[in-house]
Design a protein that fits this description.
Two copies of one chain form a homodimer.
Chain A: H1 15-23, H2 38-48, E1 60-65, H3 68-75, H4 80-88, E2 91-98, H5 105-108, H6 115-120, H7 123-147, E3 150-155, H8 159-166, E4 172-182, H9 198-201, E5 202-204
Antiparallel strand pairs in A: 1-2, 2-4, 3-4
Helix pairs in contact in A: 1-7, 2-7, 3-4
């Protein structure tokens, strides 16, 4: 174990963790049979909730799709090539942003008493801000699920249909569907695709 | 050290790493004096580039703002309350999405020869897809910077101005500005704000 726990500078986390979170983790399309528990999902949420969002607005919400009945309702709003995956995953998360996130800012931004009112009057601005920060949080969440020994399979669904099906009453807007499974036993059928290099993706000025 | 390297189930990463990436990490507003090197930024990029994006489109790009001249150009497009931070940070990243990401799909999606053409005809769809996946990647990047022992201070700038100043020729669109510093020596002036609980943010069906 000692070797696996050494960090390779300039990273400060050990190599096994870097592999688990990013380097060897894959987007999975087949799943382990073991259950993914609410205890695991709560631990992941309690980890990633600390990640930064605009003014701490924390607009990410998630629908945990677990029962056969709920799963069937979701499958009806997935493109055909993703339906079987959603049918077979132990748990599927619908990630959403809360367009009424300002109603929680008394809790989230106690140091700025007027925060709720800043957002209350402009629903369009609020939706844009919520989507942006919730997508950052979705990035944290995908990493956090892997940090709990889970594998993820993110994909897109028909969000208009999903919102009408599940979120008609609470103002949530779906933006990503994520199959979740124990990593040990999950797999993908595709060889790993290349990535751009730092020199391709960055400019230093 | 042994104790710090134990994972607290159901997380699979050790407590010190969970603290470093999420639990004790803070959005910083004052910075360490030590340099943040391109070697560090390259290692971070080479870690997080493996995170999932739609079809592996990988649209995140970044401008590494390092010289006093470039820094002054950026400061002119920041809101007044963020100008001093950008002036003082060792390095500031402007995160952007590449609206012409389809030009790289021959490299990124070799298993789907028509991928470039799928996106070539619809610039509006392309911009939306690029923004969405780049925001996920920005979430990975903020975690990845912390994984390299760095601290982050994400904030917003005037992106129309930033795009005109820096990206007039390459089709990049800025969406987040991130001050980066060594974590040891960086700080924040604000007490940590609360977060929503799992029961507040999730529904299980």
């Amino acid at each position: 174990m000692t070797q696996a726990l050494e960090a390779t500078a300039p990273l400060a986390i050990d190599d096994a963790t870097a592999d688990r979170l990013f380097r060897t983790a894959r987007t999975v399309t087949t799943f382990a049979e073991s259950e993914v528990t609410d205890e695991q999902l709560t631990a992941v949420y309690d980890l990633i909730k600390w990640g930064p969002t605009m003014m701490n607005t924390s607009p990410l919400r998630m629908l945990v799709v677990r029962t056969p009945e709920a799963r069937q309702r979701l499958v009806g709003h997935m493109p055909e090539n993703n339906q079987e995956r959603v049918s077979k995953a132990p748990v599927t998360l619908v990630l959403a942003y809360d367009t009424d996130f300002h109603e929680r800012l008394d809790v989230l931004i106690p140091h700025m008493p007027g925060a709720r009112e800043m957002f209350a009057g402009d629903a369009e601005m609020r939706a844009g801000a919520a989507r942006t920060s919730a997508l950052l949080q979705a990035g944290y969440l995908l990493v956090g699920l892997r940090a709990a020994g889970l594998a993820v399979g993110p994909m897109n669904g028909d969000y208009a249909g999903i919102d009408a099906e599940f979120f008609a009453e609470n103002g949530w807007k779906g933006f990503l569907v994520v199959n979740v499974s124990a990593a040990d036993g999950a797999d993908t059928t595709r060889p790993r695709a290349p990535r751009l290099s730092f020199d391709d993706a960055a400019r230093v000025v």
